[in-house]
Design the sequence.
């Protein structure tokens, strides 16, 4: 099949992914973009936008032509001297590092964290009902990954706020609007981890396995920097992402109370609901790849040296893959084929853990909350990378038997 590839000049069109209009209503922007074709070049930003589902999968699976080693963000990191060992490398180095940590992320390994994560979820749901009216970003979205990632890694951050800011800066620093302050915040996180976080880690934890033993096969470099960056990258990757998803999920249930009622009456649907929430509220707008030689996606020819945005959130609402894509449907049969976790060899390492967090929290909230209602104006984050809320005021109506 030959795909028509469009060329759009972002300077005089409304198809600039970073325009205030696109930022204000990203899914309306994706719909406009899709009308131009699944692969679109935007000269004003010098970026190829891949928003079609099939085309996004094709790019993510073709790591030979679409490389990660030249940067997976809009800007190539300038201030950070060490690259993130997994996400910013290609085979064979990527695969060697991934093998050294993968055993900690098998289904069985992750299940061992279930009691702790469920306990945290129960406390968060309890607090939500007690408060009655609150900011869901603070009370739910930030609290869950803050507690869960400490259980997983052994790292206890100075505060949930500091951790959220560090994780936010990790992606924001490499955006078109990224600032020096974002870069400094990332350096602050890495310095804190090296000087305070590591010495305070308990004797047996994932953090120690990586930093002291060099991973499961002991093959992470002896010099320590690769070990630190491997741990830092999974630690920072697991905060903002899951937090964004949880905020988007609460917002979705405020707008779709019928789906919340259905979830409460059919708890067996919770795992599929988690997938549908990932599809519907996919946190990452895009991850990037670069070409080193001419490459092809269906009929589109992409030149060497190109910056290619694989638009995960847009592809997860491609009507060719997901009929009626803007409808939240927790019974959707192919919800799990979303691209929120990416695809191919860089597919999210932490996805089993993120799923555990979401499923545990949904189960606890479903038991205690009859309804979520809006309690004020929600404010979206200015992040150009992550779909998320900065504040999301909600009120919960407690389930029968749950006191406020
Ligand atoms: C809802 C939550 C999450 C979402 C939406 C998400 C999304 C993603 C995506 C899209 C990628 C692929 C990037 C690419 O192809 O360039 C990725 C990779 C990665 N994620 Fe996640 N993530 C989440 C949670 C987590 C958690 C909890 C952890 C750590 C425990 C984590 C650690 C990683 C790591 C280390 C990679 C790099 C894997 C590699 O390059 O081999 N993520 N994530």
Sequence:
């Amino acid at each position: 099949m030959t795909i028509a590839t469009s060329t759009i000049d972002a300077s005089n069109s409304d198809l600039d992914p970073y325009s205030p209009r696109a930022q204000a209503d990203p899914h309306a922007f994706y719909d406009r973009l899709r009308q131009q074709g699944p692969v679109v070049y935007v000269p004003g930003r010098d970026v190829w936008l891949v928003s079609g589902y099939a085309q996004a999968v094709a790019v993510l699976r073709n790591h030979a032509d679409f490389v990660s080693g030249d940067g997976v963000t809009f800007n190539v990191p300038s201030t950070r001297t060490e690259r993130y060992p997994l996400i910013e490398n290609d085979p064979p180095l990527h695969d060697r590092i991934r093998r050294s940590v993968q055993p900690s992320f098998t289904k069985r390994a992750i299940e061992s964290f279930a009691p702790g994560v469920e306990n945290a979820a129960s406390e968060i749901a309890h607090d939500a009902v007690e408060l009655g009216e609150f900011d869901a970003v603070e009370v739910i979205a930030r609290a869950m990954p803050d507690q869960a990632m400490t259980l997983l890694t052994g790292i206890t951050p100075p505060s949930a706020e500091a951790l959220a800011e560090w994780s936010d800066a990790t992606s924001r620093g490499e955006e078109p609007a990224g600032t020096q302050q974002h870069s400094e915040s990332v350096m602050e996180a890495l310095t804190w981890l090296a000087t305070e976080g590591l010495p305070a880690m308990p004797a047996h934890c994932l953090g120690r396995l990586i930093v002291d033993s060099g991973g499961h096969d002991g093959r992470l470099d002896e010099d320590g920097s690769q070990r630190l960056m491997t741990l830092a990258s999974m630690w920072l990757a697991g905060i903002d992402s899951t937090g964004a998803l949880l905020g988007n999920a609460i917002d979705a249930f405020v707008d779709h109370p019928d789906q919340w009622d259905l979830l409460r009456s059919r708890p067996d649907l919770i795992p599929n609901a988690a997938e549908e929430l990932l599809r519907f509220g996919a946190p990452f707008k895009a991850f990037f790849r670069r070409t080193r030689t001419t490459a092809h996606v269906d009929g589109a020819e992409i030149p060497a040296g190109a910056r290619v945005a694989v638009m995960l959130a847009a592809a997860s609402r491609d009507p060719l893959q997901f009929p009626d894509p803007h409808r939240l449907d927790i019974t959707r049969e192919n919800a799990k084929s979303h691209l929120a976790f990416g695809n191919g060899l860089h597919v999210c390492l932490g996805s089993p853990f993120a799923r555990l967090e979401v499923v545990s929290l949904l189960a606890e909230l479903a038991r205690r909350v009859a309804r979520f209602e809006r309690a004020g104006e929600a404010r979206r984050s200015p992040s150009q990378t992550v779909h998320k809320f900065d504040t999301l005021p909600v009120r919960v109506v407690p389930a029968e038997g749950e006191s406020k």
Notes: The CA atoms of residues 84 and 229 lie 6 Å apart. The radius of gyration is 21 Å. The pocket of protoporphyrin IX containing FE is lined by residues 68, 72, 86-87, 98, 152, 233-234, 237-238, 241-242, 245, 283-284, 287, 312, 340-342, 346, 348-350, 353-354 (CB under 6 Å).
